[in-house]
Amino acid sequence: MKVFLVDDSAIVLGKLAAMISGIDGVEIAGQALNARDAIQSIVKLKPDVVILDIRLNGGGSGMDVLKRIKKEIPPPIVIMLTNYPYPQYREKCQALGADYFFDKVTEIEKIYDTFKQLLKDKS
After folding, report:
1. What percent of the chain is predicted at pLDDT more than 90?
2. What residues contact 12, with CB distance under 8 A and at least 6 apart?
3. Is 51:4 a contact under the CB 8 Å cutoff?
């Protein structure tokens, strides 16, 4: 399962990569710090799963990325991971096609369990 990571913090990207790369069957396909690079890379690499932050630097947001990548065939599974877990953001992301929505502070461990379930469902 190929995974692409998008966050405006290199530290967070490193932590996510370390956590996810320890799961058998999961490969980090790439990373991006901004919306433009994320969209270009995701369209090119066609990962199975994208972990995406809402707030990004350099023009564009995670919601912009979400809206664009969900038009791909097949669309990737998208896990929104944010420090802004407000209900209005959750609702907007779900309306744009997000498959999961987790709070970075209180729910980051759910990513591991989500991957385990996705891998189980895939086999």
Report:
1. 92
2. 53, 104
3. yes
Q: Check residue 123 and report its DSSP letter.
A: -
Give the number of other CB atoms < 10 A from CB of residue 25: 12
Per DSSP, the residues of 34-74 read: BHHHHHHHHHHH--SEEEE-S--BSS--HHHHHHHHTTSSS
- Which strand (E) or helix (H) includes residue 31? strand 27-32
Parallel, antiparallel or unpaired: strands 77-82 and 100-103:
parallel
| pLDDT tens readout for residues 20-77 | 988 999 999 999 999 999 999 999 999 999 999 999 987 899 999 999 999 999 999 9
Q: In whole angstroms, give the CA distance from residue 63 to residue 115.
A: 22
Residue with tokens 């790439």: 30
pTM: 0.96
Amino acid at 113: D
Instruction: Identify the band that residue 123 occupies on the pLDDT scale cut at 50, 70 and 90.
Output: confident
